[in-house]
């Protein structure tokens, strides 16, 4: 193990709390799908709605506001007639969606493997 690697025993209580906060934020229903839609280029509400299958308009609106508050998505108002609203991932949002990729890889590797079977697909 190199000196830059951390073992679970090296993680202190404060790091554990920060990890839990991040996991709860990323794991909130619709959050990862909305961030992924932004990562794939969605900018307008209708584009997010199209890319996030099953989300209601109300829930999408609530999550976009929450993600804006958490500085994961930036909201830009363009003063045209009619007014245009654009959304984009912030650096923090891009880093979060990229940071979730190893979890996606892990879930793909173990999908369909019965409990107790220690051999990934």
Structure description:
With 121 residues, the protein is mainly alpha-helical. It has a domain of 83 residues: Arc Repressor Mutant, subunit A (Orthogonal Bundle), CATH 1.10.10.10. The chain is 52% helix and 10% strand. It contains 6 helices and 2 strands. Strand 1 and strand 2 form a beta hairpin.
Can you summarize this structure?
The protein is mainly α and 121 residues long. It has helices at 13-27, 31-39, 45-51, 57-69, 91-99, 101-110, and strands at residues 73-78, 84-89.
Keywords for this structure?
121 residues; mainly alpha; Arc Repressor Mutant, subunit A; two-stranded antiparallel ribbon; 6 helices
- Note the main sheet: 2 strands, antiparallel
Structural class by sheet pairing and helices: mainly alpha
Number of strands: 2
Query: What quaternary form is this?
Result: single chain
**Spatial strand sequence of the major β-sheet:** 1-2
User: Average pLDDT, to the nearest integer?
Assistant: 90
CATH superfamily of the domain at 13-95: Winged helix-like DNA-binding domain superfamily/Winged helix DNA-binding domain
Given as residue ranges, the uncertain stretches (5+ residues, pLDDT < 50) are: none
Radius of gyration, in angstroms, nearest whole number: 18 Å
Q: What CATH first level of the domain at 13-95 would be assigned? A: Mainly Alpha
> Which architecture of the domain at 13-95 per CATH?
Orthogonal Bundle
Helix content: 40-55%
- Compressed to H and E, one letter per element, the order equals HHHHEEHH
């Amino acid at each position: 193990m190199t000196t830059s690697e951390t073992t679970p025993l090296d993680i202190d209580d404060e790091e554990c709390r920060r990890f839990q906060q991040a996991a709860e934020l990323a794991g909130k229903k619709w959050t990862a799908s909305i961030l992924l839609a932004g990562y794939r280029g969605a900018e307008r509400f209708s584009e997010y709605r199209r890319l996030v299958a099953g989300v209601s308009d109300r829930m999408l609106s609530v999550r976009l506001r929450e993600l804006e508050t958490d500085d994961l998505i930036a909201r830009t108002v363009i003063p045209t007639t009619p007014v245009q609203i654009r959304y984009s991932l912030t650096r923090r949002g891009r880093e979060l969606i990229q940071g979730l990729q190893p979890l996606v890889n892990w879930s793909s590797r173990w999908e369909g493997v019965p409990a107790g079977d220690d051999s990934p697909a």
